[in-house]
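Issue 218. Parser rejects a valid record. Input:
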Amino acid sequence: MTSQVSKTVLRLQAEDVQTLKEGINFKKNPEDGKCYIIYKVKDKLRACRNQCKHQGGLFIKDMEDMDGSTVRCTKHYWKLNVATMEYVNPPDSFMQDELEAVLSDTDGSLELVELSPPDPWTAEPREAQELQAGEITLTYITHACMELKAGNKTMMFDPWLTGPAFARGWWLVHEPPSDAMDRLSQADLIYISHMHSDHLSYPTLRRLSKKRPDIPIYVGNTSRPVFWYLEKSGVNLTNIKVVPFGVWQNVDDHLRFMILMDGVHPEMDTCLIVEYKGHMILNTVDCTRPNNGRLPHGVDVMMSDFAGGASGFPMTFHGGKYTESWKADFIKNERKKLLNYKTQLVKSLQPKIYCPFAGYFTEAHPSDRYIKETNIKNSPADLNESVRKSCPNTLTWTPLPGSVLDLALALNDTSKRSAITEPPSGTKIYKDSWDFDLYVDELNASITAEVFKYKSWIQYYYNWAGFKGYNLVIRVIETDDDFKPRCGGYDYLVDFLDLSFPDTRPERDHAYEEIKNRVGVMRHVVLNGLLWDDLYIGFNNRMSRDPDVYHHKFWNHFQTELPLSGPDWDHFLQTASETDAPDESSNACVLS
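Output the parser choked on:
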């Protein structure tokens, strides 16, 4: 099998994008002559190849179409609704393979992106064999961590068993089973979907490495390596296996798995198909558009995230439209949209069993009480109720820590009720303590690092970050836990147009963001060359912007594209000690 790749099949310059009309647009790639359809509604774009799935005919505009969303095949008059990518004549026949429409926020260009091959799991197909009770079991551990036992092998997904994620912003809702760490260390292999710290948990892996440093851990070959921070972390894991996308990995004669990329975030996000004796388990994890929307139908088990709320927006924003009522309405609508999307995804794929997981986090630290009260998330029970209404033949599972699903029993109509074993009575389900001080003190140790005695660390850090040539000015203010400026904290401007550090905002027209960062988290991120997810997704900053525009290029750089090697602070200190007098006020009362 060849590795699955993502390729651009059509690129339109900004001036061509601006000529796209509402509704259906037909476009041809002048380089290879292949044709495409782009459907536009307001600011949303959908796209596909101009090729009928029946016998490869070319689509033209359907003269009988009343709403401007249907095209007709010139061969046998099949009709495709491009707004939904469903064939409407004949009905209930095919779905059109959709291309990812990627609109650049820097130059206004549009790329249509395709995964090739689109459905690699169909290679080397295996017939489903009859299963015995206990042959395949899934045990929910916590958040996105699930234990899969298939035959005599055990596989663990995304183990986050201890400590916080995103610096100090996320904490576990559920108490993992008491033997969770032992289960993890005894597994045959581990899959980690992506580098976010609620999936790649260094506090968990640090404990694991002391028990079994050579345990096989599989990750996808993302452009930003999942374990890019491993050496710097000090965690001793010696058996990381980076595998290509869309290629079966054989564990034994019956068990194999395949890692697939996300269509929206192929640089960092992945999902997983596991197959045992022809029975498939699909784990889409956090993918926004797993495998570009092309997924296997009728799998035995499908698992996905459900909660929402995994972003600082809009809770951490203030000023302008960001009133409490606006935030509440936005969060409610986004929650509803996510629930409907997940329901429709399950309906379209028709899995035999569906389990929402990968959303059990809470903003438990007392300083984040506002976020916890504002960031209302979806309930897995509500999602499963919605799924049951749309898919009455799909068995739903809302797991608790230690809950076990027996696949053989679940697939047997007469034993479905006994397929799920709940944890024993008296089992502790929800966490009520989190060792806040241990982890927050570790972050705050960065506050007094020697580099921050010299104001020139600011220029050194942003030069290392390497982002410039963009008309954005940010003001960064170091604050206490309540986002009040700290005595002795830094307050500075960065002009990314020429990467300068002015005392006042420039006279020219420019975009502006004011970012207040908790000093302990910000300095920990700076000192270790970490990505800014700890600040943004971890609710560790507060922001306002003028104009109120999301600067994708800026945030994408600081969240996914910072250099893989951290700043050379030893070199900085050698230089700074000679040229830069210490700022004696910088740490004078920052801890007070």
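Fixed in the parser; the record now loads. The radius of gyration is 26 Å.
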